Amino acid sequence: MRFGWWGAEELGLIGSTKYVQSLTFEQQLDIALYLDFDMIGSPNVGYFVYDGDDSDGVGAGAGPYGSAQIEKAFVDHLTVEKAVPTEGTDFTGRSDYGEFINQGIPAGGLFTGAEVLKTEAQAAKWGGTAGIAYEPNYHGAGDNLGNVDRTALDRNSDAIAWVTASYAISTEDVNGVPARSERAQARAATSAPSTWKTTTTHTPTWRNHFSTGAGLLVQGTAARSALRVAREPQGGTRQGAGSRRGPVAGRRLDVHPAQRQTA
Ligand SMILES: [Ca+2]
Ligand SMILES: [Ca+2]
Predict the structure, then answer these.
(1) Proximal ligand: closest to the CA of 61
(2) How far is the CA of 51 from the centre of ligand 2 (A)?
(3) Cα–ligand 2 centroid distance for 254 (angstroms)
(4) How remote is the CA of residue 60 from the centroid of ligand 2, in Å?
(5) Which of 9, 71, 99, 135 is catalytic?
(6) Exposed, middle or buried: residue 10 (CB in 10 Å: 0-12, 13-18, 19+)?
(7) Residue 17: how many other CB atoms lie within 10 Å
(8) How far is CA 59 from the centre of its chain?
(9) Is residue 81 annotated as a catalytic residue, yes or no?
């Protein structure tokens, strides 16, 4: 896990964009997923989860493959463990996930709302006041620690911890790479002579990192070739550092990278 606190988000996602673009393509492949937590305690709270599969059909399309699974992980925790109904929120590009998605990295996260007004239906299911903003102090002088919804912060913190820890153990549902324990078993079953095996320490071929700030990243080096296929534009070679490009052309969001590789 790698935690990131991005600078100059309000000035145009400058810190996070610079970070992602400063990575080589190989380093970008190491990032299995990115989790974004920009606002999670708005006082007139809305419980929004980034709409990774674009099931709402609003605004931007679905995120890179794996984004739908991230969305489901958050929705499952909040609705099942916390009994809090959620709604999707579009990848509008207003927060630091933007450049991660541009580079084909799966993303997701939580959001409790900003300047948009809460509806009657939302007030009925979440409490709070219809007709005023989820965050009335958005970009205002009243945006301080006295105006944080502690219940929302607590619920969302639990969901963040659960989902983050789950992906620290395994990113299999996002990128097809099995958990470390399963990989160790596979190595033990297929590796060389037993006399050698018992005395040799196998260096893990994987590492998992997380990063957050407003966000979190999970990295892994396996399934690299599959990820490469998934993230590279068709017939092209990625430049990595410093490149600025839109969503990957021809990228399939509904087919797992590993499956797509053999298709
Ligand atoms: Ca959705
Ligand atoms: Ca959308």
Answers:
(1) 2
(2) 6
(3) 15
(4) 4
(5) 9
(6) exposed
(7) 19
(8) 18
(9) no
Matching CATH number, 2-187+203-262, of 3.40.630.10, 1.10.3720.10, 3.30.70.260, 3.40.50.300: 3.40.630.10
Neighbours of ion ligand 2 (CB under 5 A): 51, 54, 58-60, 90
Residues 6+ apart with CB under 8 A from 83: none
Cα 210 to Cα 32, 123, 142, 213, 225: the distances in Å are 9, 34, 32, 10, 21
Q: Say which amino acid occupies 225.
A: S
Residue 240's nearest CA partner among 28, 13, 15 is 28
Q: What is the pLDDT of residues 35-90, one digit of tens each?
A: 999 999 999 999 999 999 999 999 999 999 999 999 999 999 999 999 999 999 99
Q: How far apart are CA 113 and CA 44, in angstroms?
A: 8
Taking each helix axis from N to C terminus, what angle separates 67-76 and 150-169, rounded to the nearest 10 degrees? Answer: 130
Ligand nearest to the CA of 70: 1
Domain ranges of the chain: 2-187+203-262
The token pair that represents 173 in the structure block? 């549902």
The per-residue pLDDT for range 80-126, each reduced to its tens digit, is 999 999 999 999 999 999 999 999 999 999 999 999 999 999 999 99
**Residue recorded with tokens 């033990």:** 188
Ligand 1 centroid to residue 54 C-alpha, Å: 5
Looking at the CA of 50, name the nearest ligand: 1
Give the span between the Cα atoms of 142 and 135, in whole angstroms. Answer: 10
Q: Which two tokens stand for residue 35?
A: 């989790």
